[in-house]
Amino acid sequence: MVELKDSIHQEQISAKNTELIERYESEKKEQEIARLETESQLANVQLAKVQQQRLASLLGVLALVVIVGLLAYLWRSKWNQNEVLSEKNQIIEQSLREKESLLKEIHHRVKNNLQVISSLLSLQERRLNEPESKAAFKASQSRVKSMALIHQNLYHHDDLSKINVRSYFEA
Question: For the purposes of burial, counting CB atoms within 10 Å of the CB of 121, is it exposed (0-12), middle (13-18) or buried (19 or more)?
Answer without folding.
Answer: buried
